[in-house]
Amino acid sequence: MDFSLSDEQREIRDWVRTFVRKEVMPLEPEVLRRERAGQPGLDAEELRALQLKAKEAGFWGVLTPEEYGGMGLDAVTAALIEAELGRSFVPFSLGGKADNILFHANAEQRERYLLPTIAGDRKSCFAITEPGAGSDARNIRTTARKDGAEWVINGEKTFITGGNEADFVMVFAVTDKDKGADGGVTCFLADRDMGWKSEYIDTMGEWGPAALIFEDVRVPEENILGEVGQGFRLAMQWIGQGRYLLPARAIGATERLVEMAIEQAKTRVTFGQPIAERQAIQWMLADSAVEIEALRWLVLHAAWQVDQGVDSRQAQSMAKLYGGVKANEIVDRVLQIHGGMGYTRELPVERWYRELRLLRIYEGTDEIQRRTIARNLLKGHAKVGGYLG
Fold it and tell me: Does residue 267 have a pLDDT over 90?
């Protein structure tokens, strides 16, 4: 069993680490200042400039197939990249990507939606969650009614990432109420100028999702993505495809946070000694280091299973669950080690505290991950001991 990285993986990881240190981390003070003022940490032009700078070095479309101009990297390497990007709270991601279900586009849709999205000329969002259908995606109520050569969509979506900035949406609507999720949900590509509206949702974090409102939005027949009635299958493919990447980013965040805690413990003096001499602080650091390593291997093992083409859902759910829970415990310890200053908005600790809390909710709550893991065990789809057991 070989746990070493290939030379290519090590070079890619090191390049991203250097890029984050030299190009992204220097922006952190200004990002914090803007966010304290209620402004976006990075505007669209600044994000685009950073992405193009990375593109000059060949970093564009990490998981995008090479025939579409991407790097076409394996899942393990993608996880390594995401961990390095997570070392900064600056809202930056590499460009050149598109939602995986967009690759189901036909030739015409590919030209209008997929390729411009990969190029960064168009922005998409994925809309399945509704006020009454979050974890229970089968309960969606948005409808699409056929009217001649068009479909008329009515309903509301909520907590849609990128919904305020997107110029088109992949929206899921019920087209056959009797069949429901089993052949009665369809995915439509709906341009913003077709009439849907977005409303900003204020959250405890800096992430600004949207509510999307559809009132008699007319979408032509040719804008169906995939096949009529097969939208729920596409949605599940989107939700489960890259779940391991969410806890991967938490690896980088928690590493950076613990490094900050170590520095604070060495320099903060109480009662004549650095707090690093206190057993309570040492145990916080030790527990955090162990948990980060456990998370790293859960994530990399899930990514490895993706690369092997085996069913990785159990491994990804475990990584997502453990990553969300432990990242929140670690950032809480780091804030405690920083004391009152950790609670202020002068340092990024409280900002990370708010951001990492989301990891336990979006793209499958802790409870849903536990349900998935337990159900797989009880039905015999997975065994204690996992793939190597």
Answer: yes
DSSP 278: S
- DSSP-assigned letters across all residues of 49-61: HHHHHHHHTT---
In this structure, the dihedral spanned by the alpha carbons of residues 178, 184, 185 and 187, taken in order and rounded to 10 degrees, is: -150
**H or E segment to which residue 331 belongs:** helix 313-343
Sign of the CA dihedral 184, 240, 305, 5?
A: positive
Alpha-carbon distance of 252 to 359, in angstroms, equals 14
Cβ contact 275:269 at 8 Å: yes
pLDDT at position 142: 94
- Give the span between the Cα atoms of 337 and 332, in whole angstroms: 9
Residues known to be catalytic: 363
What integer is the mean pLDDT of 179-187? 88
Confidence at residue 385, expressed as pLDDT on a 0 to 100 scale: 82
- pLDDT at res. 134: 61
Residue 189, strand partner residues: 170
Residue 219 phi, psi (nearest 5): -120, 130
**Which whole number is the average pLDDT over 328-333?**
98
What pLDDT score was predicted for residue 201? 93
In angstroms, the CA 61 to CA 70 distance is 4
28 CB-near residues (< 8 Å, 6+ apart): 88, 89, 90, 348
Cα gap 41→24, rounded to integer Å: 12
Residue 160 contacts residue 144 (beta carbons within 8 Å): no
The Cβ of residue 263 has, within 10 Å, a number of other Cβ atoms equal to 12
Token code pair at residue 19: 């890029």
Spatial contact of 261 and 140, defined as CB atoms under 8 Å apart: no
